[in-house]
Design brief:
77 residues, alpha+beta, 3-stranded antiparallel beta sheet, 22% strand, flat, DUF3551, DUF3551 domain-containing protein, signal
């Protein structure tokens, strides 16, 4: 039984690491909800500022741009 659980846990961890789902929608993380319960940079899963504000509404949280985009280097074309 212990071996089966260990095998299933290892398989799940391998699938989670190898899954390209986290990179499938790179533009869906432009804004982060931040606050005491979220920390920094917070929950960065929002494509628009309005989505982030709607989620933060009624809480002591606020929205900000994802630091990965805010501090990224601009490319010269």
């Amino acid at each position: 039984m212990r071996r089966t659980i260990l095998t299933l846990a290892s398989l799940a961890a391998l699938l989670a690491v190898a899954s390209p789902a986290a990179q499938a929608h790179p533009a869906n993380d432009r804004y982060c909800i931040q606050g005491r319960s979220w920390g920094y940079p917070g929950n960065c899963q929002f494509a628009s500022y309005q989505q982030c504000l709607a989620t933060a509404s009624g809480t002591s949280s606020y929205c900000g741009i994802n630091p990965r985009y805010a501090f990224s280097q601009q490319r010269d074309y």
